[in-house]
Structure formats: C-alpha cells, structure tokens
Amino acid sequence: MSGLYLLEQGLNGLQFGLMLFLLAAGLTLVFGIMDLINLAHGSLYMIGAYLVASFTQATGSFAVAVPLAIVATAAIGMLLEATVLRRLYRRDHLSQVLATFAVILIANELTRAVWGVQPLTLNVPAAVSGSVELLPGMHYSAFRLVIIGAGLVVAGALYLVVVHTRVGMLVRAGASNRDMAAAMGTDIRRLFTLVFGCGAALCALAGALLGPLLAVQVGMGESILILAFVVVVIGGIGSIRGALVGALLVGMVDTFGRAFIPAALRAFLPPALADAAGPSLASISIYILMVAVLFWKPQGLFPARG
Amino acid sequence: MGMLRRIWPLVAVVALLLWPQVAASLGLEFYVALASRILILAILATSLNLLVGLCGLVSLGHAAFFGAGAYAVAIAAVEWPGASGAWWAGDSAWLAWPLAMATSALLALVVGAVSVRTRGAYFIMITLAFAQMVYYVFLSLKKYGGDDGLSLPRRSRIPGLDLGNDTTFYYVVLLLTALMLVLFARLVHSRLGTVLRAIKDNEVRAESVGFACYRYKLAAFVMAGAGAGLAGALMANQNSFVSPNMMHWEQSGVALVMVILGGVGQPWGALVGAAMFLLLEELLSAFTQRWQIGLGLVLLLVVFFAPRGVAGLFARRR
Question: Into how many domains does chain A fold?
Fold first, then answer.
C-alpha cells in the first residue's frame, strides 16, 4: 500500500465529499428551517446535469453552459417552491413525502419526454481533460482537481455567508427556531424562497461537475439523494457545519471503503467469501457510519436546534 | 353518504370474491394476476400501516422485510427440495411461508432494537439505512443470483390445491388478505392497539403511566416485519422470481405512498391505496407512455384535497 495511492484515494474522497456537501447544504437548510422533507431535491440535481449537457451542446462551451444551467435550475427550483412546496410547510412529514415523491415522478417523466430515455454523455472539457503530475510519479485527473477547487471555493463562501453575515445569521436563526425568528421580525417566507433558490443552484453546480464523471440519466437524482440525506442526518438537521463535516466523512469513508475493504478482507478470509462480502461491505460502510453516529449522538454531530 | 358508507365494503367484498369468474367470462385472465398483486401489496401496506398509522413510526425501510420473506421462500425451495409433497419440504407452503414470516420478524427484531429508540426524521433515515444494508447484502449474494435475482422452480405446494393455477392462488391470497385486514382492525381496538396509540399521542405520558414504550414499539415493529414477510412470500410465488429490487428503497417508498394514498390508520386504507396505485398505473399506461406524470398529479391532488387519504373520504368523521 503506497503513500501515493493513499493520497490519490484521499483526493477522490475529498472530491466526492465536496460534491455531497453541495447537495446536502440546500437539503439541510430546507429541512432545518421549514421542517420540509424534500425528496425532490435530487430531481433538481438531475435537471441541472441535463441542462448543462444541453447548453454545452448548444453553445459549445462547458464554461458558458454551467452558469446558464445554474441560473435556470435556481429559477426552476423557486418555481417549484412557489407552486407546490410552499403549501407543505405546515403539513406533516407524511404529506411531504407523498407530495415530493409525486414531484419526482413528474420530473423524471418530463425529463424523459424532453431528452429521451438514453443517457446523455457530457464530456470532460478539453482544457482539463488531461492529468497533472502532482508529485513525482503521481498523476491526477485535472478535471477532478477543478472539481475539488470549485467545491472548496463554494463550500468556503457558503460557510462564510452562513456563519459570518447578517443574511446567514437570519438563516441560522430560522433553522434553530423558526417561530422565534419570525416573531423577531424575520420574513421567513422570503428568506426561505431565497434559500431554496440557492439550494437549487448548488444542485445544478454539483450536477454540472459530476455529470462528466457519471452518466447523465433519469434516476441519477434518487441514488445520490439518499447519500445527501445520510450526510444531513449525520451532520445534524439544519446545520451547515454539520453538513460539511458529514459530507467529508461520508465521502472519505465511502471512497476508502471501496478502495481498501475488499483487499483487507482477502487478508484473513477465504478468497471466495472475501470477493462476495467485500463490495457489499464497502457499499454498506456509510450506513454503518450513520447508525454508529446516531447511536452515540441521536441528534447528529452538530444539532442546530437549541 | 350514510348508506354508501355501509354498502361499499360489501360491494368490495363481493367484487373481490367474484372477480376471477367475471374476468374469465370477459376474457381478461391477465387481470386475475393483477388482482393478486394488488392484494399482496395490500398486505405489505397494511403491515406498514400498523407502524405508521398506529404507532406514528414512519419507516422508509419496510421493503427489506418484504424482500427477506421473498428470499426465504426462494432459498428454501432451492436448497431443500425434500420429498415432494411432504409438508417439511422446502417448497411446501406450510413450511416456507411461516419460515418467511419468522425470518422477517427476526430481522425486524434486530433492526427495530436500534431503530425504535429514535424518532421523527431520524427514524425514517435509520430504517432506510438498515434497508440499504440488507439490499447490498442480497445484491452481493452471488450464490443466490446476486443482482440477477433467483427464479423459483415452482410455486409453493399446499396439498389438495394447485397454486400454479392463477385463480386458485388468487383465492388463497384473498383469504390471507382478509385475515390480515381483520387482524389489523381487531388490533386497533385491542389493549395493545390502545397502548400504541397512547404512545403515538404522547410518549412521555404513556411512559410515566407505567408502559414500557420501547417494548411496545419494538413488538409492533416485529409484527409489521412478519406481515411484510408474508407479503414477500406471496409475491415470490406470484412472480416465481425474487430479486434485490424487491428491497430497493423505492419499493419502501411505494409502500408508504400506498398507505398515505389510502389513508393513514384507516383499516381499509392499505387495500384502497394498493388498488388505486396499481390500477392507476395500469390505466394510465394504457392511455399514454407518460403515465407517471398522471400518477404524480393524482398523488398531488390527494395531498392537497384528501389529506386523510382516499379511504378517509368515506370514513366516519370523529
């Protein structure tokens, strides 16, 4: 097990974790402030990825397509909030699950109607399609470095906004105690539409950055939605700091689990059994992490509600 | 409304009893199998309704117990051919179906022991996490087909009945569904049901009156698991096939949608919800390829205009 391999896996974990953070940030604030379980959050990620693929094809430039898709997805997100989700804030979790499940069905089918059933391919932009020699003998994909860079910048900016600005203070107040924040004069509704739009924009960014690595297809939102929820619950519902820590933990555990668990099992189990158990144990590792965290800290690592 | 309320369960029972004959005379034999699927999913949704409606425990991992029951039947049939026709053979319903329920109940005991300590959104997520673990375990069980699934050599045997016949199988499923619905209705008014509702309304108060809430909730979780296991055993027989997709989280989501669609806590709710979901799917897909849009719109209408579910529209207001 060489140090370079460890470093490479560490970078992969960081990259995956940062993308999960982009998805979980919007989800945790929506969950924390409006107490809304939004299963349709993954659909915004899917729509963002599709829009980036289409705009890239139309304009010929990935760099132009990404901001366009982010703005468009934010608009779609705010439209969704204003038409459907706004009616769900005072309802119980069950109604929210049913309604947002319905939104998933509609979004998936509309996506199929517009773009067809075949997955789209979104190529890595030519300028960053090569690899960079980070250390002597260690090559790493330039595009993944771009993802890490963009993820760090956005995560840092978001953290500064939420923790150190007046708007961020209102957001945190809303997540901690919505009624009290409203009583103190905060326009929770407007604040929330804004938060929702930002959450949708972050989804689109994640879709744009992950699109070239994964296939752009219907259903891509649901598989990553579960991971985003795991991150939210590990971090503590409503906590942006929790989402960041949770996302990095999940990204690292998942990446290292896939890289090392199968090999580690082979060391002390018969090969046939190790080959069967390895991949499933690697897939399960983040859920074990979540159960363990909830066992010790039932409210997540950084409970937002006082 | 009063008359209608009393008559429509009777109409439903008569329709369900006569359905195979009606379908055969109309040349719609395919719809007997569809009706069996509706009833099986009604058993699954009823078992989930026990958790959601009675205890307020919203589980998003119920498909794990459904799939575990299905795999118990399939694995028993493959591993234990035994003497054909003997009740202890792996393909005997007398052995395989209780085995499926016991397997799922045991799994529910393990999952529930950890899960029912949490509440609200955390309960939703932790049940989902356990279901994902079970899903990935079966996905990697290459011996039993892995992600390709596993075919059953034949449907389970009950001496004197030919379960391979869709109509016979339908009546067996109908009998079990009726038993399940009656049990559920009895449970609601039993001592256990009353305690569970008290816990749902105010757990602190129930605890301070002297009820061991954890044990009651765990008992409900295990019972719901056993019910889902029975549904899984029947679905394995209906399709003569099991696969990890049966325990995918979207299957848990669909079961939950059926419960909400029919009406949370309504004795008939799960049956109404399962029937509506599958019939809508069937009807809409006959008209348009884009049937999921129609289904989604109907679900939204239910959320906004029938907050107590469709069965709730007909139920007596309390």
Answer: 1
CATH code (residue A256): 1.10.3470
Question: Looking at CA atoms only, how far is residue A30 from chain B in angstroms?
Answer: 13
For B310, counting Cβ atoms within 10 Å of its Cβ (0-12 exposed, 13-18 middle, 19+ buried), the class is: buried
- Residue B311 belongs to some domain of the structure: no
Instruction: Indicate whether A279 pLDDT > 80.
Output: no
Closest in A95, A104, A113 to B290, CB measured: A113
pLDDT one-digit tens code per residue, A151-208: 999 988 988 888 888 888 888 887 777 778 777 777 878 888 888 999 999 999 999 9
Distance from CA of A152 to the nearest CA of B (A): 28
Q: How far apart are CA A8 and CA A25, in angstroms?
A: 26
A95 assigned to some structural domain:
yes
Please state the separation of Cα A16 from the chain's center in Å. 9
Residue of chain B minimizing CA distance to A37: B121
Question: Residue holding tokens 């969950």?
Answer: A31
Instruction: Please state the pTM of the whole predicted model.
Output: 0.87
Q: How far is B254 from chain A (nearest CA, A)?
A: 9
B121, part of any domain: yes
**CA–CA separation, A186 vs A174, rounded Å?**
8
Is ipTM > 0.85 here?
no
Domain region containing A166: 10-118+141-296
The pair of three-digit structure tokens given for residue A164, joined into one six-digit string? 């150190």
Q: B141: domain range?
A: 2-249
Q: Which residues contact A96 (CB under 8 A, 6 or more apart)?
A: A36, A37, A38, A88
Whether residue B40 is contained in a domain is answered as: yes
Segment B120-135, tens digit of pLDDT: 888 888 898 899 889 9
**Is residue B250 less than 8 Å (CB to CB) from chain A?**
yes
The residue of A31, A109, A218 whose CB has the most chain B CBs within 10 angstroms, and thus the best one to mutate to test that interface, is A109
- A75 is a domain residue: yes
B297 touches chain A (CB under 8 A): yes
Residues of chain A contacting residue B264, judged by C-beta atoms under 8 Å apart: 94
A124 lies in a domain?
no
Structurally, chain B folds into a number of domains equal to: 1
Say how many CB pairs under 8 Å bridge A and B: 118
| B126 occurs within a structural domain | yes
Average pLDDT, chain A: 87
